[in-house]
Amino acid sequence: MSVATKGNTVKVHYTGKLKDGTIFDSSKDREPLEFVLGDGKMIKGFDVAVEGMKVGDDKSVTIPTDEAYGQKREDMMLDVPLDQVPAEIKPEVGMDLSIQNQQGQPTPVKVVHVDETKITLDANHPLAGEDLVFDIQLVEVI
Predict the structure, then answer these.
(1) What share of the chain is helix, strand, coil (3-state, %, to 5)?
(2) What whole-number distance in Å separates Cα of residue 7 and Cα of residue 84?
(3) Most buried residue among 68, 104, 118, 125 by CB atoms closer than 10 A?
(4) Who's near 52: CB < 8 A, 6+ residues apart?
(5) Partners of 88 in the beta sheet?
């Protein structure tokens, strides 16, 4: 039976949930997630959870914030004067927008505050500050 070890390409089915049971993502109705174990493209806690699993194994793991997307960071909160917001955008709390980072790449942000002079954007990952629960099934080791 194949065991997942660092450097292996693996395929897993997963369901990701918040501690309250809210599902934020799942591969249930799509192809399994394929990745190289330990290559740094997955959150640390997910890699650690899959390592050592055998094909066909199921497990449920809780990944603490620091091994997931980290704590929310204040330096990722951006105040933007309203006169710098494009006229066609009518910002509302909860609205998802995209801004360009310093390298010119799009960065997703969420509007978290609007007043008469400015809007506040949160550029933290949407799951920052959350402990995550994953149900994982190892489907294949390639």
Answers:
(1) 10, 40, 45
(2) 46
(3) 68
(4) 3, 4, 5
(5) none
Beta-carbon contacts of residue 140 (< 8 Å; ≥ 6 apart): 2, 10, 11, 32, 55
Residue with tokens 């006229």: 87
Separation CA 99–CA 111 (nearest Å): 12
Predicted confidence (pLDDT) at residue 1 exceeds the cutoff of 80 = no
How many Å apart are CA 93 and CA 89, to the nearest integer? 12
| Rounded (10°) CA dihedral 17, 23, 28, 32 | -50
Over the stretch 71-88, which tens digit does the pLDDT of each residue have?
999 999 999 999 999 999
